[in-house]
């Protein structure tokens, strides 16, 4: 297959050290708290939490323990994501004890693998005769995909290839079972994931057979006859999940049309976003113009018509899915944490195709809002669902709100989100910079130091900032030898005004290029750059087609979306509206929620105390002036249970 040349590359995670600030704090939390905590969860050592049994399943499959398989059919993937998160932490923060534990898990995985390469504890332990017979529901290829990603990450972090060898053997088995040849199955994953994983495996090994298999899975989806219906009939119409109905499942699986003809985000949101990431990967690696156009179409629909202001995706609990354009309810939003993580993957890949800042704008929105909200400040509780409006009494009383949890949970029976968030935050250093030939892109702003090569010379770059709370960013080169290259500083779409200095000299003739970057081409040796991104508090309005947000406004400062909580503003948040001329002020509160910038303003609130009209009345409610305080949306529900809202009424 033809490869696209001069592709954008991330800087190796080993060469980026996070120093301080929000992302460094979250990365440290994953290393010191989340990974050990999730290890306890995988071993059923958390009291009063949903059992996982994931490690025990591998012990049973390996013959080291006796018992029955327990958990979801995709329980193996939690172990894979834990290993991947561990790999990223080992890359940037070597830890012999953690590496030893990971090696032991990898040994266990190898012992559980069958001689022919098959690897899935559910089917090894519980239903050995049903292998490859229920792709629609049972996640065999999905679990393999996550273990492939873990294997690639672990090899890159440690140089150890045992897990890589295990997964190459597994993929060889998969390739022998699936393909266009007459003697092979014509199926594809019920839950997409292996497609993007196979591209990672190709990029590491250079073996084209992995690209070929990924392309087959993409192109086979949506073809007639409908494969999942065929295998359902071959199983005598027996289901794994009682409510499965192949006749209505095509959109759910993004199999309603051949992938290259799809132009709208439909069905299960996480599956869709993993597939879109795989499409973008393949388009880049193979220079496939048809797939490239598909990626652009799906990006536009997903982010311009079906994305929440928080970067959340998937508006309905039914199928954890997209619905229709502009249908974005706040109080029943599903917006699974995994969907925000998957959007980050998609955005990163689109940026590798075309270095437009708009892709990083979406990545940043999803990261700071829709993803971070999935984990508590202490790293030990998690949201699966991330609504934009919560009233606890309603959520507990109404069946159509039962998916909305009013507080984060210690663990889940279906625990895909916690380890997904862990692997994202463990790898966050790889998203900050990217480079190709003679161009360096600064995509995210956070305190760090990075080392890399440009034109064969060593480059050292130190970034100092308390972004996203402060406007000022310092970037200092300390290169042994001056090197000429193009430095591209991302100017976020939310930033309307910025200032730039180089070696304390104001640069006034700066222009943002057509891709949203400030490009500076010169020799870089021992220079200090100061970039100020102005961060006024902004009132954000939704497209009028979003009926739930008509006559409402949200508050945003920089990349951070804000929310009101009951603990700061009292009950009945729906009665609050911004004043006609709100005095929106931001201040940093070091003692609140591990240090955040809060927004304070004057507002109005309908007075229920003096209401004399009964349930309904011709009397117009009176509005009383009040002061409100908004906190970052991601940080809500860290100070107890109460109401929360992102969107406020306009007066």
TrEMBL record:
Alphabetical list of Gene3D superfamilies matching this protein: 1.50.10.20
InterPro entries on file: 6-hairpin_glycosidase_sf, Beta-AFase-like, Beta-AFase-like_GH127_C, Beta-AFase-like_GH127_cat, Beta-AFase-like_GH127_middle
Transmembrane segments: none
Organism domain of life: Bacteria
Location of the Non-reducing end beta-L-arabinofuranosidase-like GH127 middle domain: 440-535
Coiled coil: none
Domain Non-reducing end beta-L-arabinofuranosidase-like GH127 catalytic: 15-429
GO biological process, one term: carbohydrate metabolic process
Domain Non-reducing end beta-L-arabinofuranosidase-like GH127 C-terminal, residue spans: 537-649
Pfam families on file: Beta-AFase-like_GH127_cat (PF07944), Glyco_hydro127C (PF20737), Glyco_hydro127M (PF20736)
Protein name in UniProt: DUF1680 family protein
Organism lineage string: Bacteria, Bacillati, Bacillota, Clostridia, Halanaerobiales
């Amino acid at each position: 297959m033809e490869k696209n040349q001069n592709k954008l590359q991330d800087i190796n995670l080993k060469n980026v050290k996070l120093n301080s600030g929000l992302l460094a704090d979250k990365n440290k939390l994953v290393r010191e708290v989340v990974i050990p905590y999730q290890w306890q969860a995988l071993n059923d050592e958390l009291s009063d939490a949903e059992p996982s049994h994931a490690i025990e399943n591998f012990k049973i499959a390996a013959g080291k323990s006796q018992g029955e398989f327990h958990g979801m059919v995709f329980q193996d993937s939690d172990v894979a994501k834990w290993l991947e998160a561990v790999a990223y932490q080992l890359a940037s923060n070597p830890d012999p004890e953690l590496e030893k534990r990971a090696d032991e898990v990898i040994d266990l995985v190898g012992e559980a693998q069958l001689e022919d390469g098959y690897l899935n504890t559910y089917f090894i332990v519980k239903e050995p005769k049903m292998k490859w017979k229920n792709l629609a529901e049972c996640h065999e290829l999905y679990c393999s995909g996550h273990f492939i990603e873990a294997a690639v990450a672990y090899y890159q972090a440690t140089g150890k290839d045992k897990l890589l060898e295990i997964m190459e053997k597994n993929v060889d088995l998969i390739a022998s079972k699936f393909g266009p040849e007459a003697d092979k199955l014509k199926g594809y994953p019920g839950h997409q994931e292996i497609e993007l994983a196979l591209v990672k495996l190709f990029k590491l090994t250079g073996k084209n057979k992995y690209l070929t298999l990924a392309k087959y899975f993409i192109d086979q989806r949506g073809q007639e006859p409908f494969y999942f219906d065929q295998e359902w009939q071959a199983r005598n119409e027996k289901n794994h999940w009682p409510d499965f109905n192949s006749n209505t499942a095509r959109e759910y699986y993004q199999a309603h049309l051949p992938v290259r003809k799809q132009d709208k985000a439909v069905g299960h949101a996480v599956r869709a976003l993993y597939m879109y990431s795989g499409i973008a990967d393949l388009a880049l690696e193979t220079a496939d113009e048809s797939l490239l156009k598909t990626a652009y179409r799906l990006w536009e629909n997903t982010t311009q018509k079906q994305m929440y202001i928080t970067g959340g995706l998937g508006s309905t609990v039914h199928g954890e899915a997209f619905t229709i354009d502009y249908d974005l309810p706040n109080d029943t939003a599903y917006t699974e944490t995994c969907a925000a993580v998957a959007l980050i993957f998609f955005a990163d890949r689109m940026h590798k195709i075309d270095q437009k800042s708009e892709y990083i704008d979406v990545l940043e929105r999803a990261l700071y809002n829709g993803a971070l909200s999935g984990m508590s400040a202490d790293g030990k509780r998690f949201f699966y669902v991330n609504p934009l409006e919560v009233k606890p009494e309603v959520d507990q009383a109404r069946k159509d709100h039962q998916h909305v949890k009013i507080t984060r949970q210690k663990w889940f029976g279906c625990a895909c989100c916690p380890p997904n968030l862990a692997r994202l935050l463990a790898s966050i250093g790889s998203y900050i910079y990217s480079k190709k030939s003679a161009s360096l892109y600064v995509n995210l702003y956070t305190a760090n130091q990075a080392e890399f090569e440009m034109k064969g010379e060593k480059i050292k770059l130190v970034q100092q900032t308390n972004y996203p709370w402060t406007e000022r960013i310092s970037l200092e080169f300390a290169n042994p030898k001056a090197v000429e290259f193009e430095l591209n500083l991302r100017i976020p779409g939310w930033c309307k005004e910025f200032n730039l200095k180089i070696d304390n000299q104001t640069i006034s003739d700066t222009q943002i290029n057509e891709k949203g970057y400030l490009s500076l081409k010169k020799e870089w040796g021992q220079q200090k750059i100061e970039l100020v991104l102005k961060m006024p508090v902004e009132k954000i309005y939704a497209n009028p087609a979003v009926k739930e947000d008509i006559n409402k406004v949200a508050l945003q400062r920089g990349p951070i979306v804000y929310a009101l909580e009951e603990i700061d503003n009292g009950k009945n948040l729906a009665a609050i509206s911004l004043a006609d001329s709100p005095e929106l002020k931001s201040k940093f509160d070091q003692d609140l929620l591990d240090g955040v910038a809060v927004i304070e303003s004057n507002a109005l609130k309908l007075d229920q105390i003096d209401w004399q009209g009964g349930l309904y009345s011709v009397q117009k409610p009176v509005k009383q002036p009040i002061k409100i305080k908004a906190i970052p949306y991601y940080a809500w529900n860290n100070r107890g249970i109460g109401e929360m809202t992102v969107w406020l009424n306009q007066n």
